[in-house]
Amino acid sequence: MTDNVIDEQNLLRPHAEQQYAHELAALARVDDRPRPPSWQLSPWAVVTYLLGGELADGTVVSPKYVGPRRLMEVAVATLATDRALLLLGVPGTAKTWVSEHLAAAISGTSTRLVQGTAGTAEEAVRYGWNYARLLAEGPTPAALVPSPVMTAMRDGAVARIEELTRIPADVQDALITILSEKTLPVPELGIEVQATKGFNVIATANDRDRGVNDLSSALRRRFNTVVLPLPASEDDEVEIVARRVAQLGSALELPQAPAAEEIRRVVTVFRELRRGVTTDGRTKLKSPSGTLSTAEAISVVTNGLALSAHFGDGVLRSADVAAGILGAVIKDPVADTVVWDEYLEAVVRGRPEWADFYRACREVAG
Questions:
Q1: CB 205 within 8 A of CB 91
Q2: What CATH class is the domain 8-227?
Q3: Which of 7-11, 32-36, 53-57, 258-262 is the least confident region?
Q4: Which residues are paired to 161 by β-bridges?
């Protein structure tokens, strides 16, 4: 392998357009429906890519999102207009996952990305400068460093902005002109970059995290908002966790997929604590301070799989997931410890089939 060739088999996390290239190519071959300007697939094909199905040529498209079809239809229809899309939800509701796959299916690349943080500067949204050239030549087009958003405007593609509400409010508002006028002025050069057909923005945000900067009314009006809920049923959540753990396990070269019963137990614990009531509805529970999202359940099971592979016999057991669950539940060492102890004694201890899990959790807690 030369330095200029990427061996996708060795990538820890391939981009969506790399990992699912065969599915995107198969959809493009059978897709005979109208496509908006610059789109790689029709809106119907994009939704099929997200939700999965079997194509006329026999190709099986794996589901990327498990949830209401209508939500994905609304999201895709929004991107086919001149309105930007805001995916809103609590942490772990697959906002980033959906955003990446939407961009991959629509534009063929998901890498025009601005990752929002408290330190994100306006240059990340608009443009910056190559300061060596700026000092040597002054403001010139060659010294301009376009942001992913500016690049998407030029290419007629989808730009992604992750964790929009973590970006400072004054930087957020740099998007207003871009979204309303579809233009990005560069006053230093006396020019503007106008968006070509196909350009749009997908942003993700949640309002349950610390460090949130609320969107201004002016900016929020320029988005269509789609709220992604937590999985409606336990079976849906188990399916999501099992699929993602299998994908991650393959990328990490872990020996085997975990037992379905251990995944279901982790999901059950998370759902009961999240809802504040046991599955049978008989016992009310206190909820911990954390969100206990599907993403955290995936992390707990994947970590347990690594423990069993490298320090056990390769079979995922209660002892392998107990520490991960403890870390996910107890974010506040005082209040959450009380919640977890009450759950163990009132619920877990009373389930004979969970006796091994109870012992493992008590051993981890000391």
A1: no
A2: alpha beta
A3: 7-11
A4: 114, 203
Q: How far is Cα 78 from Cα 156, in angstroms, rounded to an integer?
A: 16
Amino acid at 354: W
Q: To the nearest whole number, what is the mean pLDDT of the chain? A: 91
The domain spans of the chain are 8-227, 234-365
- More confident: 203 or 4: 203
User: What global pTM score does this model have?
Assistant: 0.88
If DSSP states are collapsed to H, E and C, what string results for 258-298? CCHHHHHHHHHHHHHHHHCECCCCCCECCCCCCCCCHHHHH
Q: Which residues contact 264 (CB under 8 A, 6 or more apart)?
A: 234, 238
Report the sign of the C-alpha dihedral through residues 313, 315, 317, 323, in that order. positive
* pLDDT at res. 314: 81
| Of the candidates 237, 282, 272, 258, the residue with the CA atom closest to the CA atom of residue 344 | 272
Q: Residue 341, Cβ neighbours under 10 Å: how many?
A: 14
Alpha-carbon distance of 252 to 259, in angstroms, equals: 18
Q: Is there a contact between 316 and 308 (Cβ–Cβ < 8 Å)?
A: yes
pLDDT at 168 over 90: yes
CA torsion, ordered 245, 248, 253, 254, to nearest 10 deg: -30
